[in-house]
Amino acid sequence: MDTQIPVRPSRRINLLPYLLFFIFILINFTIFEIWPYQIVAYIGLLIGLLLSMSLKVANEWEKAVVLRLGKFRGLKGPGHFWVIPIIDSVAYWVDQRIVATPFLAEQTLTKDTVPVNVDAILFWMVWDPEKAALEVENYREAVAWIAQTALRDVVGRSMLSDILSGREQLDKVLQDVIDTRTEPWGITVQSVEIRDVVIPANLQDAMSREAQAERERRARIILGTAETEIAQRFAEASKVYENNPIALQLRAMNILYEGLKERGGLIVTPSGVADSLNIGSLALSQQMASEKVQCNSTNDSQAKA
Q: Which residues cross the membrane (predicted)?
């Protein structure tokens, strides 16, 4: 379904001229009931009719484009104003408020030949009522068609990924294109906002699988990087343990201790592993070191005494 051109709301009928005309009728037929004075009554009716046709009222947000014998005479309003009946005519009532016009482009091919439906909304206003009334036949309809054409053109020159990820940039491009085309008509574009981009269902599934595969690839890269860093740390630690066997044995004992602490219970190790750890010699070395420290402290205390 193509864009529906917005229809201008109908103006509210101004009852003041008709009320004045009705009052003139009552006055004339009440005062001039005698036949000789009926001519005066008819003249009064004619004057009342002309006055009622001369009075016009424009709303606060409107400008009336007045033509005199087919030529532009000027802009009137807001408020009441007078025109010369038959000679003057109000050709157009221009609304100067900001107007919101929705528009869309259906089954439009992107640069990478993907059919998409793009839904957008245009905010614009008339800054020169004279140009809007005289330069284009129906400025509301023209703005809607230009917006739709510009949207199709911009979508056709863009990749699908750019449309999905760069909506703000696309909004700016659309605003510049539409504003350039409507400026000669006295119309300025306030903003353009893309509300929705619909792509085919099968393409949505493919893009979802692609995104999932991309996330898995990144996860594996991160895991591989972590493994590389861990291997480098192990290589550095092996060099330290190579020059210090006692440190290696202490590390092995710490691993056993951490396993017992976290999981509880017993850990059964082969006798060869226990011998390689040399737990007895380590305990003896620690005991001798402790006794040596105690002996040194005793000697120091005796020397002070």
A: 12-31, 37-58
SS3 12: coil
Q: Is the pLDDT of residue 258 over 70?
A: no
The answer to whether 192 and 169 have CB atoms below 8 angstroms apart is no
Q: What is the DSSP letter of 278?
A: T
pLDDT per position as a tens digit, 29-47 = 555 555 555 666 667 667 7
Do 147 and 101 touch, CB atoms closer than 8 A? yes
Residue 142: its H or E element: helix 139-156
Query: For residue 211, what are the domain limits?
Result: 205-239
Do 147 and 179 belong together in one domain?
Answer: yes
Which amino acid does the sequence have at 39? Answer: I
Final residue belonging to a domain, choices 73, 93, 113:
93
pLDDT in tens, 105-137: 888 888 888 888 889 999 999 999 989 988 888
Same domain? 106 vs 187: yes
Are 21 and 46 in contact by the 8 Å Cβ rule? The answer is no
Helix (H, G, I), strand (E, B) or coil at 122: strand
What residues contact 78, with CB distance under 8 A and at least 6 apart? 58, 59, 60, 61, 62, 63
Q: With left for phi above 0 and alpha for psi between -120 and 50, is residue 242 left, alpha or beta?
A: alpha
Task: Please give the Cα distance from 18 to 8 (Å, whole number).
Answer: 24
Residues 135 and 168 occupy one common structural domain: yes
Q: List, for residues 65-75, the tens digit of each pLDDT value.
A: 999 888 888 88
SS3 label, residue 130:
helix
Q: For residue 53, which of 88, 27, 79 has the smallest C-alpha distance? A: 88
pLDDT the model gives residue 208 = 63
Give yes or no: residues 278 and 249 share one domain.
Answer: yes
Task: Say if 301 falls within a structural domain.
Answer: no
Kindly state whether residue 10 falls inside one of the protein's structural domains: no
Asked if residue 2 is part of any domain, the answer here is no
- More confident site: 10 or 48: 48
Predicted TM-score (pTM) of the model is 0.58
